[in-house]
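queue> pop job 88
queue> type: inverse folding (structure -> sequence)
queue> payload:
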């Protein structure tokens, strides 16, 4: 039987059900992390519900391996596409997740924008811009999303996101190969990445076939894996890639500034792999600082933030230092 207390303090569980991966943090309300878990993507718009359920279960079970899950008082899950998680056919399978882990406490599912905002600040009200595989901007108040811009998924939205970058890279390569566009360093980089650097043909007509087959043989969301190639090519002096980077920055800034205030006392949080650093992140940070008249806050661990929100649901006298401890550990991902 796992240790029922695993240290001092009331136990809570936070889960970040992201498009890139699922991360779970089991912690005390004092901010002491007891266990962590990680698994694959929870993108309900790109994966079957059963696969999302498996990833959620795996991460939660890892995080609670050393405790009695019956002692956990509350769970908060931050999920992209929150409506998909809380309605319809997904309800039954998701309920099975909590049963499989052995949880008996309330489970609250919130938008990923809520946990991303909390990953940067313990203040109750402000704005957040997320750019990773997907992209969304939102205004947050008291643990609820009041307004949102984009976050509409890879098919019709997520402008400036990792998927958007990957798709633009592929389109630029097609244009270069059939002479609609100018030559670009992205051609070799994209083909080598998609084929695993094996037997990339030299004939442009054959390259078109290889590129098309590689793109359509995999899930659409896999194009997000090509995103790092774009800023890398831009830094190498490629004009095509630089134009894509410039457009991505403009789209992300437009999304954020369409709903954020210019009040420096209201926190603005930036979250997601594109905004944590790198060419795109630095420029978005610079432009948003000018708009906001204050430096934006870079988000920490979204799973830790979910645990913080769960703790807030259990106690009203939390130490602000607990927030810092829970959100300090960040998921390592490449900055692009």
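queue> result:
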């Amino acid at each position: 039987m796992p240790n029922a207390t695993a240290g001092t303090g009331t136990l809570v569980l936070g889960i970040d059900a992201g498009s890139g991966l699922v991360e779970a943090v089991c912690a005390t309300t004092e901010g002491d992390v007891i266990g962590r878990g990680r698994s694959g993507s929870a993108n309900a718009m790109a994966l079957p519900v059963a696969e999302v359920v498996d990833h959620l279960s795996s991460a939660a079970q890892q995080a609670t391996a050393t405790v009695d899950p019956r002692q956990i008082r509350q769970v908060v899950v931050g999920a992209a596409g929150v409506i998909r998680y809380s309605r319809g056919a997904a309800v039954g399978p998701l309920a099975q997740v909590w049963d499989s882990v052995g949880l008996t406490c309330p489970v609250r599912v919130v938008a990923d924008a809520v946990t991303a905002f909390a990953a940067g600040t313990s203040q109750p009200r402000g704005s957040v811009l997320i750019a990773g595989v997907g992209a969304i901007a939102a205004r947050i108040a008291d643990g609820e999303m009041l307004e949102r811009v984009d976050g509409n998924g890879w098919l019709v939205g997520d402008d400036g996101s990792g998927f958007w970058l990957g798709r633009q890279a592929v389109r630029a390569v097609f244009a270069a190969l059939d002479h609609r566009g100018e030559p670009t360093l992205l051609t070799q980089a994209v083909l080598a990445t998609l084929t695993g650097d094996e037997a990339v043909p030299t004939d442009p007509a054959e390259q078109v076939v290889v590129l098309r087959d590689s793109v359509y043989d995999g899930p659409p969301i896999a194009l997000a894996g090509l995103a790092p190639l774009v800023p890398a090519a831009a830094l190498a002096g490629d004009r095509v890639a630089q134009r894509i980077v410039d457009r991505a920055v403009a789209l992300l800034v437009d999304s954020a500034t369409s709903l954020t205030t210019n009040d420096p006392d209201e926190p603005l949080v930036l979250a997601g792999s594109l905004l944590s650093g790198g060419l795109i992140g630095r420029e978005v940070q610079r432009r948003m600082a000018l708009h906001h008249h204050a430096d934006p806050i870079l988000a920490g661990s979204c799973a830790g933030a979910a645990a913080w929100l769960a703790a807030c649901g259990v106690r009203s006298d939390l130490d602000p230092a607990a927030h810092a401890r829970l959100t300090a550990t960040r998921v390592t991902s490449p900055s692009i």
